[in-house]
């Protein structure tokens, strides 16, 4: 061994010494990244708890409201009330018309005709208003329930993406352990020479290339996980915003509308009531004697042949009958309006609660999204580590002579294969060994379809039914 | 009374997501950080199902399963492996040790709940 060769080997050994130190530091750093970022994943998870809970509350609220609106009891009660109102209106109108025909000239016919038309129209409006109000509430609840059902799968995607912390943590741990192994192999170089040394250099170079590829994959998967968490949370947020906008529209349009309609209906009821009262008073104020005279004249004209006493009795009965009808009609109309107002009040209260929950939930989600930074942390830290790995590999490659490596690498690199706990790691390893571009390989998990490819062929035992990644024995 | 399920995983985020999914569906959840911790907690808690990771420090999933199956109280309790591992050889090892089923991470909440419902009836 001449002096020049000794000098070169000392230089190389000194570089190896630096490499060993760096590799050990990188191994430690990889363990730290996983620990540091775990807290952030856990925070996202904690917030997901809160979001999901609030989302469920919101959804439950809407479901109960929908159930209440659609309940048979509610529907039956509403139908009965509407039918009763309709029937009583018809009976009232026809009875009063008949009574008027019989009493003929009791009061001014033209005035009564107008009032009867107003009552008829007002009652129809009231019936329409009750029906529309229920239909609007039903539509709102259906839309809200549909959106609530779309929130759950989005939260499921976030749950799935959060687990990528465990996946990437293992990958980083495995890479860290491999870097430690590489450091130890490098340390053993000092006692080797000749072919053995060349073999080790080749092993180190390939092993470093594999670790770099594994870590690049970690960075890629982490970015996808963060994108998935953000995009699915944004979808949840979007759905919640739509809920809020919808609720706002109902409250806004109907908020103004509701007050307006309430005022209109109140006026309507008052009109009906005053019309009825007015008519009743007009009828009551008509002198019986005059009425009987008129009836008599009318009967004489119509040649119906009744006595005055009989005619008086008919008119009296008609008044009594009308008084009863007015009372029943007024009572049922009041009941219908009261029910409608009460229902509108309850609906408004429920929608207000849903709106408040939705706004709170949306703020929380946007807060969660804004605090997601683990992808940048991991990407930056891994970027620094892989740059170091590249530098070390460059130096190692410089030490490798141009002569072909005299041995196969498989036995030693198989040790690395045994460390892997997931198919994607094995795929990356094999791709590097075979010189295949990693971009051509569909690695597990977060692809566009959401299907995991990090799984061997699905078995028939529940796999089809429960998903490709599930197997029941 | 709701059923109790034990989740065993050295990853806090996975335990959190399993608990989140199961608690949301009305189950009680007991968490253990590895196989050894699970065995300790099984002495004081009555569980109707175990969902465990495969690779863990102190005592791994296979070791845990062997210990659990040796305990007459838990001989027939369903045990689902929830792991990143998808190799058939590992699955067969798990099956031989007494696993009821195998889920490869990441899981979707509806998948996990479907498995739990199917296994617990």
Strand content of chain A: under 5%
Tell me the number of structural domains of chain B. 1
Whole-number average pLDDT of chain B?
92
Rg of chain A over CA atoms, rounded to whole Å, is: 43 Å
Per CATH, the architecture of chain B is 3-Layer(aba) Sandwich
Note the total helix count of chain A. 11
Distance between the termini of chain A: 65 Å
Task: Work out the largest interface and the residue count of each chain.
Answer: A-B, 41 and 37 residues
Whole-number average pLDDT of chain A? 71
Q: Strand percentage of chain B, roughly? A: 15-25%
Total count of strands of chain A:
1
* Residues in helices of chain B, as a percent range: 40-55%
Write the layout of secondary structure elements.
The complex is a heterodimer of chains A (473) and B (121).
Chain A (H helix, E strand, L loop, with lengths): L2 H68 L1 H32 L5 H54 L1 H24 L6 H92 L2 H15 L5 H63 L3 H26 L10 H10 L3 H12 L28 H4 L3 E3 L1
Helix pairs in contact in A: 1-3, 1-4, 1-7, 1-8, 2-3, 2-7, 3-5, 3-7, 4-5, 5-7, 5-8, 5-10, 6-7
Chain B lengths: L3 E5 L3 H13 L3 E5 L2 H10 L4 E4 L8 H10 L8 E5 L4 H10 L3 E4 L4 H12 L1
Parallel strand pairs in B: 1-2, 1-3, 3-4, 4-5
Characterization of the model:
The complex is a heterodimer of chains A (473) and B (121). By secondary structure, chain A is mostly helical. Chain A is 85% helix and 1% strand. In chain A, α2 (72-103) runs antiparallel to α7 (308-370) and α5 (194-285) packs antiparallel against α7. The two termini of chain A are 65 Å apart. Mean pLDDT of chain A is 71; it is low at 300-304 and 444-460. Chain B has helices at residues 12-24, 35-44, 61-70, 88-97, 109-120; strands at 4-8, 28-32, 49-52, 79-83, 101-104. Chain B is globular and about 30 Å long. In chain B, α1 (12-24) links the parallel β1 (4-8) and β2 (28-32). In chain B, 45% of the residues lie in helices and 19% in strands. Chain B has a 5-stranded parallel sheet, with helices on both faces. Chain B has a single domain (4-120), classed as 3-Layer(aba) Sandwich (Rossmann fold), CATH 3.40.50. With 121 residues, chain B is of the alpha/beta class. At the A-B interface, α1, α3, α4 and β1 of A face α1, α4, β5 and α5 of B. β1 of chain A pairs antiparallel with β5 (101-104) of chain B, so a sheet runs across the interface.
């Amino acid at each position: 061994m001449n002096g020049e060769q000794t000098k070169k080997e000392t230089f190389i050994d000194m570089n190896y010494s630096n490499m060993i130190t760096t590799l050990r530091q990188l191994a430690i750093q990889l363990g730290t990244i996983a620990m540091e970022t775990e807290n952030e994943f856990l925070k996202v998870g904690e917030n997901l708890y809160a979001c999901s809970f609030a989302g469920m509350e919101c959804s439950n609220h809407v479901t109960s409201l929908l159930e209440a609106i659609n309940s048979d009891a509610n529907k039956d009660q509403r139908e009965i009330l509407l039918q009763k109102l309709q029937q009583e209106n018809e009976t009232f109108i026809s009875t009063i018309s008949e009574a008027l025909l019989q009493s003929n000239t009791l009061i001014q016919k033209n005035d009564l005709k107008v009032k009867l038309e107003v009552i008829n129209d007002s009652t129809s409006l009231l019936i329409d208003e009750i029906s529309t109000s229920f239909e609007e509430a039903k539509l709102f609840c259906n839309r809200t329930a549909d959106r609530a059902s779309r929130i759950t799968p989005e939260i499921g995607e976030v749950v799935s993406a959060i687990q990528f912390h465990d996946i990437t943590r293992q990958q980083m741990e495995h890479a860290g352990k491999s870097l430690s192994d590489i450091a130890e192999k490098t340390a053993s170089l000092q006692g080797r020479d000749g072919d053995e040394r060349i073999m080790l250099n080749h092993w180190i170079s390939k092993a470093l290339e594999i670790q770099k590829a594994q870590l690049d994959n970690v960075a890629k998967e982490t970015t996808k996980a963060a994108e998935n968490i953000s995009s699915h949370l944004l979808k949840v947020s979007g759905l919640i915003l739509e809920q809020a906008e919808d609720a706002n529209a109902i409250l806004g349009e109907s908020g103004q509308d509701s007050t307006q309609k309430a005022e209109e209906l109140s006026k309507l009821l008052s009109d009906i009531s005053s019309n009825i009262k007015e008519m009743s008073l007009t009828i009551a104020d008509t002198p019986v004697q005059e009425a009987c005279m008129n009836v008599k004249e009318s009967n004489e004209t119509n040649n119906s042949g009744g006595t005055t006493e009989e005619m008086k009795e008919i008119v009296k009965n008609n008044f009594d009958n009308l008084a009863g009808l007015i009372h029943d009609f007024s009572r049922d109309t009041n009941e219908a309006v009261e029910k409608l107002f009460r229902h509108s009040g309850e609906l408004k209260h429920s929608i207000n609660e849903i709106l408040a929950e939705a706004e709170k939930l949306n703020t929380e989600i946007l807060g969660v999204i804004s605090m997601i930074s683990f992808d940048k942390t991991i990407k930056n830290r891994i970027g620094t580590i892989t740059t170091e790995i590249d530098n070390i590999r460059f130096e190692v490659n410089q030490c490798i002579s141009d002569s072909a490596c005299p041995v196969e690498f498989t036995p030693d690199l198989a040790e690395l294969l045994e460390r892997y706990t997931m198919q994607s790691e094995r795929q990356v390893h094999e791709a590097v060994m075979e010189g295949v571009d990693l971009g051509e390989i569909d690695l597990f998990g977060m692809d566009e379809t959401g299907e995991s490819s990090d799984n061997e062929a699905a078995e028939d035992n529940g796999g089809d039914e429960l998903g490709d990644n599930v197997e029941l024995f | 009374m709701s059923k109790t399920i034990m989740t065993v995983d050295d990853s806090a985020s996975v335990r959190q997501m399993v608990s989140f999914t199961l608690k949301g569906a009305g189950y009680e959840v007991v968490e253990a950080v590895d196989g050894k911790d699970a065995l300790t907690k099984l002495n004081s808690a009555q569980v109707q199902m175990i969902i465990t990771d495969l690779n863990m420090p102190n005592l791994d999933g296979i070791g845990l399963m062997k210990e659990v199956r040796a305990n007459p109280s838990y001989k027939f309790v369903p045990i689902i492996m929830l792991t990143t591992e998808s190799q058939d050889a590992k699955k067969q090892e798990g099956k031989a040790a007494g696993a009821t089923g195998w889920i490869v991470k990441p899981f979707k909440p509806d998948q996990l709940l479907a498995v739990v419902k199917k296994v617990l009836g």
